[in-house]
Structure formats: structure tokens, C-alpha cells
Amino acid sequence: MRFLYLVLVALTAGLITGKIISPDFGNLYELMLYTLIFFIGVDLGMSNINEVKKVSKFVLLLPFSTMLGSLIGGLIASLILGISLRWGLAVAAGCGWYSLTGPLIAQYSAVYGALGFLANLTREIITVILYPIAAGKIPKEPLVSIGGATTMDTTLPIIRKFGDSGTAVVAFVHGFILTAVIPFILPLILQL
Amino acid sequence: MNIFIPLLIGLLVGYIGKGYLSKSRRWLDILISLSLLALIFFMGVEAGKVKISASWLFGASVLFAILAILGSLTFATILRRLIK
């Protein structure tokens, strides 16, 4: 629980720094991400190989249920906000991949491009805050779905920290399949 | 850079050095925690830089994120029950 407070402090400090100073750290964010992924790789490499063999039917189907659930969430959100289903489904189909969703939708509409970017960035931030809180109450494997495509990179460390190396494998496979599927589904929805 | 490069190098280092590195597992956990906190800080900086032009955009983004998360979690729970 103490680590969760540190996560919230780091996130708040970052938000305030970005808002007030808007510093340019260059590639530091990417560099930090790759360092972290390397450490996670070391951790997984040291783990028992049986954990990887446990990748089950559930793990392979989980990304598709995540996509379906996201689309239904997007459908409800667009009905509440009174926006076209095309935009609502496209925003939700990003599954947290804001750097792809924003620019892709922006080709058709700048406003919905901004919404696509911000909604998916918000999903990533909510995952960072929610996963540690919910990990003790909800089974860790289905909980992976909240991170969407980000579970193979940016939210993988938090899932590893509050789950275990078995959950980290589930998260990686989940994020990997979604990352492969989203670039096909998103343009398809935008052409509706 | 491709995300697989550091992951594969890490997997290889971890697998090869399993015997030696297992003694320093605590240090690995500390390194993961520290780099995770730094990553979250930089994530916050990037999010803080985003200029929100209207409160509607912010509200709509939160609504989309929450409903997409709830939808995903609901379907994941249903899937888990069906497979079990």
C-alpha cells in the first residue's frame, strides 16, 4: 500500500511539473520505459518456465473480450454524450493506445482526434492508479483487461509489481495481441 | 526502438544468469520500483503538458475511459467464469 502512495505522489508531481514548467526531457521517458522493460525481462527470465507454459485459452481470448467490452463502453459513452457512434467506437477501440488513436482519428476530425488522445491517455492513468487498489479485491488476471493495449509496455511494470510474474506474462500476451489487432480495427471503424 | 529488444535482452540475461542473479532478486525489485516511479513521473509530465481547450473534452475523456474500463473488466470476468 505504501508503494501506491509513492505512485500517486510521482504522478501528481509529474502532472504539476508538466502543467507549470512543461519541461522537455527529450527521450528520457522512452529510455526509462526501455530500462524498465529490460528489468522486467530479467525478472521473467529468472522465473519458472512453467509460468509461461500456463498461457491458457483464457489468456488468448482475454484481448478479444477487452476489445468487445471497450467497444460497448464506447457505445454507451457516445449515447450519453450524443455523439456519432463512429467517433465513439473509434475512441474506445484505441484500448489505451493514445499515440495511435489520436493521430488516426485526427485525420478525419481534429476534435475527436483530441478526444481519442485524451480518453486513451486517461485510461492509461486510471489503470496506473486503479490496478494497485483493485489487485487485492478482483482476480488479477481479468483485472489486466483494464489496461488495454498498454499492458505490454507502460502498465506492465505496475501489473508486475502488484501481481506476480505469471500475471506479467498474461499482461504481455494481452497487450501484444491487442497491439496487433487495433491498427486493423480502428481504421475499419473510421471507414464506417 | 522496438519494445521487444530490451525485453528479449532482459529475458536472455535473466535466463542465463538465473543462478547468480537469484541472490540479488531484492535489488532487482528495488530497481524495478525506482524505474517505475520515474516512468510514472514522466508519464505525468507528458499528461500535464496537454492543453485542455474545454471542460467538455476533459469530461468526455474521463467518461470514455471509465466506461471502456468497466466494459473490458465486465467481459473479462464473464470470460473467466465461462472458461472455469
Percent of residues of chain B in helical segments? over 70%
- Give the largest interface pair and sizes: A-B, 90 and 65 residues
Radius of gyration of chain A: 17 Å
Distance between the termini of chain B: 39 Å
- Please mark out the parts of chain A with pLDDT under 50 across 5 or more consecutive residues, or reply none: none
Structural Rg of chain B: 20 Å
Helix content of chain A: over 70%
* Helix/strand structural class of chain A: mainly alpha
In DSSP terms, counting alpha (H) and pi (I) runs of 4 or more, how many helices of chain A?
10
Overall structural class of chain B, as computed from helix and strand content, comes to mainly alpha
Residue ranges of chain B: pLDDT <50 for 5 or more in a row?
A: none
Average pLDDT level of chain A: 86
The SSE order of chain A reads HHHHHHHHHH
The general outline of chain A is globular
CA-CA gap between termini of chain A: 45 Å
How big a fraction of the residues of chain A is strand? under 5%
Average pLDDT metric of chain B: 83
Tell me the number of strands of chain B: 0
The quaternary organization reads as: heterodimer
Word description of this protein:
The complex is a heterodimer of chains A (192) and B (84). Chain A is mainly alpha-helical and 192 residues long. Helices cover 77% and strands 0% of the residues of chain A. Chain A has a domain of 132 residues. Chain A is globular, with a radius of gyration of 17 Å. Helix content of chain B is 85%, strand content 0%. Chain B has four helices and no strands. Chains A and B meet through α1, α2, α4, α5 and α7 of A and α1, α3 and α4 of B.
